[in-house]
């Protein structure tokens, strides 16, 4: 971890964590504090939808994979539709290959008749103004491969605003390295705590509150002071020397 990696506009320091440390935060939140993945995902999706509305314009395409990151993107699509934003979804796999919370979010979108397709051809046929990158989260530890990598390459050919959830897909969250295809977003909404690799990111970085109690961080000896006050999003800047 890096206790002085980032600061807020009010001068408060915010600790950055590695992927392994964030994994422990998620584990403790779920196993010891009884916070469900769907609860955290709902907060992530709501905050992401808000950031997309402030950063980009319509129409919006959400790129989503499996797991928590993809589920957060799919949840954001629902919030955007609920606010009459023109949005569609492109998956990096067939919908039946989604599982867990991501599958739950997809089934809701399907019931709402939100357009959901998969693969790079589907993205190439769209003409979005804004792309939401929710393909891969902090768990990536090597090159982005397969359909997810192809989707990233296709985004690079389009003149769009890109908002990434948690970390840009293709970036290793701990180091900031990009060992293969990687999204180059205009804005990143990272969740709970920033990841150490984001010190390498020079775009606009926001931190989103997903309602993890301070006790989770304290139980893991992660220095934490609530940076959110009355807001669910705060802008972060790298501290000098990081």
**What is the subunit organization of this protein?**
single chain
Name the shape in a single word.
globular
Widest β-sheet, arrangement of strands: 2-1-10-9-8-7-6-3-4-5
Low-confidence blocks of residues: none
Q: Which CATH class applies here?
A: Alpha Beta
Order of helices and strands: EEHHEHEHEHEHEEEHE
Fill in the CATH topology: Rossmann fold
| DSSP strand content | 15-25%
What would you say the CATH architecture is?
A: 3-Layer(aba) Sandwich
State the helix count: 7
Could you characterize the architecture of this molecule?
The chain has 242 residues and is α/β, with parallel strands linked by helices. Helix content is 34%, strand content 21%. The chain has helices at 19-31, 37-55, 67-82, 100-111, 120-125, 146-156, 214-219; strands at residues 2-8, 13-16, 60-64, 87-91, 116-118, 130-134, 161-165, 187-191, 204-208, 233-238. The chain has a ten-stranded mixed sheet with strand order 2-1-10-9-8-7-6-3-4-5. α4 links the parallel β4 and β5 (116-118). α2 (37-55) crosses α3 and α3 runs parallel beside α4.
